[in-house]
Amino acid sequence: xxxxxxxxxxxxxxxxxxxxxxxxxxxxxxxxxxxxxxxxxxxxxxxxxxxxxxxxxxxxxxxxxxxxxxxxxxxxxxxxxxxxxxxxxxxxxxxxxxxxxxxxxxxxxxxxxxxxxxxxxxxxxxxxxxxxxxxxxxxxxxxxxxxxxxxxxxxxxxxxxxxxxxxxxxxxxxxxxxx
Length: 179
Prior knowledge:
mainly beta
């Protein structure tokens, strides 16, 4: 009888469990995904209806970082309807926002993981339109870091030109009919 010596490998329980995929600890996220930002943008316009002569609206942009890592060099770019201009009057963005309305861009700096930037409100003057026209205002956020997802980095809202302002319409319903 011939005896063959086979090498003996000693495998620790932790290695065996990891190889079998049955480790007692959950698998760690790949290092490429840990600590990444994930920006989310919400946008509202108030009022949502203006008269055909045009008018002023307030565009409010909220930026959140749902990721675990910081979003550095956060920039929001607005896309107002054609013919729009910054509304008259003093615009005072929150202290952390630095805006240049010649290019409709506002910079925030760094937004911590899980954080929310101060609401950015931009006064906007919309041009003359026809009753029934609809215009879209949009905003998109970017960061210099690699995000886990960019699917929700943009938002939009619509403004409608109406025959009469909403408030005027409701008052006319309350007024007595002429005799």
